[in-house]
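Q: For a teaching session next week I want to show students how multiple molecules come together into a single three-dimensional assembly. I've collected the sequence lines for a complex. Could you give me the predicted structure tokens for the whole thing so I can convert them for display?
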Amino acid sequence: MGNINYSETKILKVKEPIVLKSGKVLSNVEIAYETYGRLNENKDNAILVLHALTGSAHAAYIHKDTGKAGWWDDMIGPNKAFDTNKYFIISSNVLGGCYGTTGPASINPETGKQYALDFPVVTIEDIVDVQKKLIDYLGIEKLIVAGGSMGGMQAIEWSIRYPDVVNSTILIATSARLNAQGIAFNAVARNAILTDSNFNNGNYYNGQNPSSGLSIARMIGHITYLCEEAMFKKFGREFKDGPSFDFGIDFQVESYLQHQGKVFVDRFDANSYLYITKAVDYYDPIKEYGSLEAAFKNTNSRFLIISFSTDWLFTTTQSKQMVNALVSVDKDVSFVELESKCGHDAFLLEFEKQTKIIKSFLRG
Amino acid sequence: MGNINYSETKILKVKEPIVLKSGKVLSNVEIAYETYGRLNENKDNAILVLHALTGSAHAAYIHKDTGKAGWWDDMIGPNKAFDTNKYFIISSNVLGGCYGTTGPASINPETGKQYALDFPVVTIEDIVDVQKKLIDYLGIEKLIVAGGSMGGMQAIEWSIRYPDVVNSTILIATSARLNAQGIAFNAVARNAILTDSNFNNGNYYNGQNPSSGLSIARMIGHITYLCEEAMFKKFGREFKDGPSFDFGIDFQVESYLQHQGKVFVDRFDANSYLYITKAVDYYDPIKEYGSLEAAFKNTNSRFLIISFSTDWLFTTTQSKQMVNALVSVDKDVSFVELESKCGHDAFLLEFEKQTKIIKSFLRG
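A: Of course. Below is the structure for the complete assembly, covering every listed component.
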């Protein structure tokens, strides 16, 4: 169908230092970003798409260097949910990440060495403030924001933090804050990295990576991204080859998790995993503003909230809390719970249903 | 109230070799066990109580050496659910464990050294066969069996494997087989142990223990024993001291999990954790017999099945599958789902409700 669209990742060097929520200051921040479609003359057709935990700026199209499709390529493009014939879509890698935006593997200008754990702990608020630099640089004053999972948290914060900029907010499979169980999973994941014998207090860049710990962290993550129903459907209790009567890989679900762990350690930095999960754990506008109603009170946005029936990491109940808070402060909010057997992963898989709903919301 | 009851752990040396499900043979098997109450003249008042994943033979009373109460002391004793005025209660440590019954830390008679990973992989069926040696030794021919979680799996297998012995079976917070998600959690837990740099292919007994891996395994376990509701009630999103902006312990739920991990590594053998979780993963009478109905068809037992509303590791749905299978092969089965906010841990916490139901069933 038609021509192939290619993307490239650009770097914006932020001139001014960024003051973080912790009070620490980051200089020489760089932002990796991609754009799809064209910004119109009025500069009022921009959508900022926000990635989840381990995503990158490469959200759509085929990357001209790697040949790989973006993580939301099924959602962004001509006539897709985020239609590049109409909209100018922006995607940037988060602060603290490892795909081009400044993070713990970046060079600390004060020492000339990689930050490692000298990188300051960053928050969702900091991540959003850095994204704002990119939006300012692009000359955009009105914005639609959209994200799933941790991307949704960023979108929530955008609507709260920059109420004069954000006029539409799309929140998918997300929540205003992680529940205690979610913190628990992240805590165990970080513990696996921190106690890996190669971790060396984060200074592993010239040695062996803490691959075992990072792999365990990823396996834990994948359990929470699926749901029992999805796992049963995908793997059941089937053996890979039959019972081994040893401690090798026995069940197909074990094989799947091991594979996910192995692939992940080749593509992600363990320190970034620490920083980004911490940002997710910390995010809590309810604590910050006293209530969700107070947090949303000054927003000037329409909201679309989508949850998935089998998502147990970011539940429908949590989405409804946001809906109720928005309604009670007289905001324009649409809410849909989509039936899905894919668990939390649904936001990366259930394209057709999401597309219809998002298109309708964007028309509205 | 009244006198304190003390217990002691005894050891039975099994003379004959045990042929395992894998075909391997174990010699010189020893069984650690305790008993409470008195066996009557007819030897028909015995209840075998079966422990969960990391339990021991010390189920009740105050241990005369350690001064500690047994893991089900609230359920076993005079006038309790398992009434020692009426019944003779037996509890034994499982094969492969680390509390007295032969396991990977035991001496291999062929080498004079600890087995470590030379210990054969054992199954729930093997665990039950070893318990049968104890029951035979005690001269008991009719038996009530009762267990929660992995203890329930043993009870299921007792009813199937020894239909002429078992006349009543009490299954609490258990299932005929672990679901795919449960296998996934166990697989990640084992992976954490196996990849600990101290693990040394299981030969750590003269060196450093794989404490980091075992601790992670335990933390994962504890997440599954609670439920989000219980976690929220216990910890919410409260900080221990306030946001640290580092990677130390921040949230109370993190502190709880770290503590559980730390306590566990002092009391449990990492190799045993591998063997016992593997036994749980493998257990599958549905696969073994073709269906649950076929598995239960030749049992001669009454059944009591108790599930807990917030248990997501061994769900009410799984309990109902057993109920339906038993009904369809004309067995006498009672079923209760107890409301609880404690998740899977409820079987170790909700004593009052369980006591009423169990007493009624045992009278019946």
